[in-house]
Model the fold of this input.
Amino acid sequence: MTFWYLLLAAAALIALSACVYVTRRIHRFTPIKRLGERHALLSWLVSLCPLAAPALFYIINVYSAAIVLMHMALFLLISDGVCRVIEAAKKKKLRRDLAGVIALGLAAVYLAAGWYQAHHVWVTRYEFETDKSLGGDIRVVEVADSHLGITLDGEDFAREMEKVRSAKPDVVVICGDFVDDDTEKEDMLTACRALGQLDAPYGVYFIYGNHDKGYFRYRNFTSRELRDALAENGVVILEDETADVDGRFLLIGRQDRSTPDRADMMALTEGLDPEKYHIVLDHQPNDYAAEAEADVDLVLSGHTHGGHIFPAGLIGLAMGSNDRVYGTEERDGTRFVVTSGISGWAIPFKTGTFSEIVVIDIRERD
Ligand SMILES: [Fe+2]
Done:
């Protein structure tokens, strides 16, 4: 708990510093400086006006406001750095008004692109081959990290499921963080009904992420109600369990890494038919060594949101929080896929990535 309080205090301090920096930087614009010579208070009030942008995003939540503020400060800081380099090279002082305006304009464009990348859902396709017998090609659609309520409400989620339907999957897997603490019950129920209307022949499977069961107690539905809504719509929840899908392949759904008693990979795969194709669903991509050692064929994860806000993914990778942030790789014969998710937690921008549904075709090697 102390760690989180320290993190919160550091974030508040950074946000306050960003506020001060942006305001002081705007106050140095020539017209505002001139205004200050006659009306000091008025010039400071005008300097505060750009902070209306983060204040507006506070309507969504405090994280959105912080992201907007941080990007304004960062782009101004970069423009000041560039000006300083040019001043040093030319050995003369520049008027930085234009650089400041361009910096704020670029920040707005950058965030607008991030907004679009978070709200538009792309379809990403992969094709993998296997020496194992599958009884024909298999198409799996992976959907993760809908975090209902931030970029997608229940109706939006239902509309996005049209893309899943058009992909004509054999099986659909929901790889965690379907909901979080801020999801409304109505959105959860609508999204569960949408899952129930998918007509994949082998059905819809679900694993829990770290947010699905809720960290706090303020949302208006319980974990039990989520479980019941999924079950009523025919969605199969796998919690350290294996489903033999029509005798063709095995789906091994893991509990989230945050679950204290989750089974290890060796225990999960013990006794399974090694001739069958093994697909593991694991919300957080950070047990790659064990999963490769267990000799499974494919591991599907989410959780990272593909980095969400640049450069968070790279920092996470450097800190060893995840084995992979986005995309696919093969380790010791095991294929891994991490999706950036159909949405993401709390922040309605994606500057490090985009929202997606993943369609995977698995074929028998000729
Ligand atoms: Fe997660």
Remarks:
- The first strand starts at residue 121 and ends at 130.
- DSSP finds twelve helices and twelve strands in the chain.
